[in-house]
Amino acid sequence: MDTAKKTVIVVEDDLLLQREIVDILSRAPDIECLLAVGSGEEALIKIPARKPDVVLMDIKLPGLSGIDCVKILKNNNPAIEIIMLTVYQNYENIFEALKAGANGYLLKATDPNTLYDAIRNVYSGGAPFTGYIARKIAENFREPPKVQGDDEVLTKRELQVLDMLSTGCMYKDVGAELGIGYETVKTHVRNICAKLHVRNRTAAIAKHFATTKSVPRL
């Protein structure tokens, strides 16, 4: 059992709200907030240096936007887990954040326990969304099916992995259920992303449950 604390950096320009988020995180026994920064420019310096497990990123920042910050961070540090924590729930912001590489998208009004679970979830391989945002993603991807080449067809095992991930299972849960190793699950996810032409597992899950017209249990 992993007893190490999940480390977090908060990127939020509203100092009052920044302190509130840091205070909320301090109450979780398994989560440690390393620091909080107020701009994307500062985030690009501090995050690679401190190497947190998870970043909570605001969208509307002074100067460099949160979405542009995610894009740069992901290009330089693909393994970093980033959850957008914002007041904006319009589909343009949601999809721009996902395209930039965000792994989850929550509203700032999210209650503390849901925020804790989201950090644990994304750290373990999940993709945390509110129900409303999940539906918006589904609506975006709900389009007439395209003819796929043989290289784009998911294998039975890949479908099993994606189905389990889309119901909220972590990588370790998928591995245990299917009798495969953690690294094998990660390899399947990489192959799935390549075949679905998406950047990360979050977008793959969204595209998958949208085209099958189901919404994951979040």
Major sheet: size, sense and barrel closure? Answer: 5 strands, parallel
CA(first)-CA(last) distance: 23 Å
CATH homologous superfamily of the largest domain - what is it?
Response regulator
| Structural class assignment | alpha/beta
Mean pLDDT: 82
SS elements, strand count: 5
Named CATH architecture of the largest domain: 3-Layer(aba) Sandwich
Gyration radius over CA: 17 Å
Could you list the spans in which at least 5 consecutive residues all have pLDDT below 50? 143-151, 213-218
Query: Which H/E pattern describes the elements?
Result: EHEHEHEHEHHHHHH
**Strand ordering within the main sheet:** 2-1-3-4-5
- SS element count, helices: 10
Overall domain count: 2
Strand content: 5-15%
**CATH topological fold name of the largest domain:** Rossmann fold
- Give the fraction of residues assigned to helices: 40-55%
CATH class placement of the largest domain: Alpha Beta
Description:
The chain is an alpha/beta fold and 218 residues long. It folds into two domains: 6-123, Rossmann fold; 146-211, Winged helix-like DNA-binding domain superfamily/Winged helix DNA-binding domain (Arc Repressor Mutant, subunit A), CATH 1.10.10. The chain is built from ten helices and five strands; from the N terminus they run βαβαβαβαβαααααα. The chain has a five-stranded parallel beta sheet with strand order 2-1-3-4-5, sandwiched between helices. Helix 4 (91-100) links the parallel strand 4 and strand 5. The longest helix is centred in the C-terminal third of the chain and has 15 residues, at 182-196. The radius of gyration is 17 Å and the shape is globular. It starts with 5 loop residues before the first strand and ends in a 7-residue tail after the last helix.
